[in-house]
Amino acid sequence: MNGKTDDQIDQEKYRAPALSKGLDILELLASEVDGLSQIAIAKQLNRNTSEIFRMLMVLCQRGYIEQREEDDRYQLTTKMFEVAHRHPPIRRLTSIAGDAMQRLANEVNQSMHLAIIHSGKVLVIAQVDCQDNNITAVRLGAQINIFDTASGRVLAAWMDQDVLDNLMKDVGTEPADKYQAFLDDLPKVKEAGYCESQSLTIAGVLNLSAPIFDFSGKVVAALTVPFIQRLSGTSVASVEECRERLIAVTKDISRRLGAGAHS
To answer: Residue 129 contacts by C-beta under 8 Å, 6 or more apart in sequence?
Structure first.
């Protein structure tokens, strides 16, 4: 007996060091807004620069990362985002929601975005703008701290407790008051059926967010309008009208995804 558990033996048996290094690099760069140099990547991953260099070259050749000419830092491209969108559930969701989102944006004269939970963050998977000259939009592919969003509250409010507990582990360390405020909001969001709150990142923006359910009754996405009050130009629906139309659209998208079919 060598004292190793079955899990440890399996982990050693199926090790793929090169793949692990590549994934480590991708996960590290995913959390870096401004990219990292080869030396910084090697240091953070506790690897030598030569082995990191080989992995960086392969990832660049495959189009997953790119090196900026001005400072030689490496950063992610959009390829992982594009690959994720080939996944049938996300492709079906964005396909069904896309036209409905654009119609709603034109009706209420507001921009809006569709988001899911990914790796403990809110990931924006679709974004549409209204026809007005002035808009408030969230970048497609943006990954946002769940505590700073109405979308995060909607996506978490209907979770089973064990799923919510795992999400809280994924998000990492946050100030206790921010963490608790988020959890305290969830029952209120679920009872109301939507989230309406002042933006925690942009003054003067009121976030309206409603859930989209799939056939199993699980919340799979949140559709959010960063509502702005226009002082001139094209007329706009009131907050109440916008909220009402938003909820109606999310219910229709949910129905088209099969929600309620087995109730």
So the answer is: 105, 111, 135, 137
Summarised one tens digit per residue, pLDDT across range 85-98 is: 555 567 788 888 98
In one-letter notation, the amino acid at residue 5 is T
E strand or H helix at 40, and its extent? helix 38-45
Strand order in the sheet with 219-227: 143-145, 121-128, 112-118, 219-227, 206-213, 195-198
The answer on pLDDT for 232 being more than 70 is no
Half-sphere exposure of 253 (CA within 13 A, CB side): 29
Distance CA 255, CA 146 (A): 26
Across 166-177, average pLDDT = 83
Among 206, 210, 223, which Cα is nearest to 98's? Answer: 223
Whether this model's pTM surpasses 0.85? no
Task: Report angle CA 65, 69, 75 to the nearest 5 degrees.
Answer: 25
